[in-house]
Amino acid sequence: MQSYEAASDLMKDRVVLVTGASDGIGRVAALTLAAHGATVILLGRVLEKLDAVYDEIVAAGHPTPAILTLDLSMAGEHECRQLAEVVETTFGRLDGVLHNAAVLGDITPLEMYDPDTWDFVMKVNLRAPFVLTQALLPLLKQSPDASVVMTTSSVGRRARAFWGAYAISKCGIEGMVQMLADELANVSSIRVNAINPGATRTNMRASAYPGENPDGVTRPEALMPLYLYLLGPDSQGITGQSFDAQPPKAAS
Ligand code: NDP
After folding, report:
1. Which CATH superfamily is 15-250 part of?
2. Ranges of each domain in the chain
3. Which of 202, 223, 243 to mutate to test the pocket of ligand 1 (most atoms within 8 A of CB)?
4. What is the whole-number distance in angstroms between the Cα of residue 187 and the centre of ligand 1?
5. 231 CA to centre of ligand 1 in angstroms
6. Comparing C-alpha atoms, which of 34, 91, 87 is closest to residue 64?
7. What is the pTM assigned to this prediction?
């Protein structure tokens, strides 16, 4: 999929919400989607960081984005329904969601894992994609070609020692993608897929591997063909699958 070449106007007239759009892979995905014509809803918890992404998109002459601030560790049914109402009132449509935001938590044996950290990680990484998707489904169903993309990890395919709640949350993401894709298959055209970015040069990667030389780690820009493919019209009919954005190598 790295060889996929997206048309320059691939995302024209589409409205796509990106969680964790303030930094790392989400920031680059937001910029890339906007560069291909999407109106991007930038969701994150720190307004200043979202403002900077907003300014970058506007300065490049791409469709004017929108900002929604929400701390996903506190995202309940009420907050997500409110958010869906704002999207409907502002844009009247939603064609894609990229569930990208996540936190790493602790890398430590399960025997010693702090239960509060566990809950926090599960809220951001697994509960938030669930409640947000649930609230946004009515809008997504109205789109002629909606795509939901969730973000997994190699430890979501095979949980590795010491990766704690992060690994289990990503195992849950893999399951949610399969389940939701099956549930929607016969009742709507919404497709639901997962992306494993693979080792990517971001703050999260640096936290997980503090001794690693970042120069040898793939930049988020290199992953974007798969993100465009799955969020754009060329992936119509593809659902319930988990993709690697780069050939799996080091732990990620
Ligand atoms: P970063 O830590 O660089 O960025 C994470 C993003 O999520 C930031 O925008 C951050 O916002 C946001 N976020 C975190 N917590 C919350 C919260 N409570 N509410 C709202 N937003 C929040 O991570 P990456 O870009 O590396 O990761 C992106 C995705 O890719 C994640 O799902 C990760 O698990 C996955 N992944 C990454 C890999 C890698 O090597 N980088 C490998 C495999 C999977 P803020 O700016 O406020 O911190």
Report:
1. NAD(P)-binding Rossmann-like Domain (3.40.50.720)
2. 15-250
3. 202
4. 32
5. 19
6. 34
7. 0.98
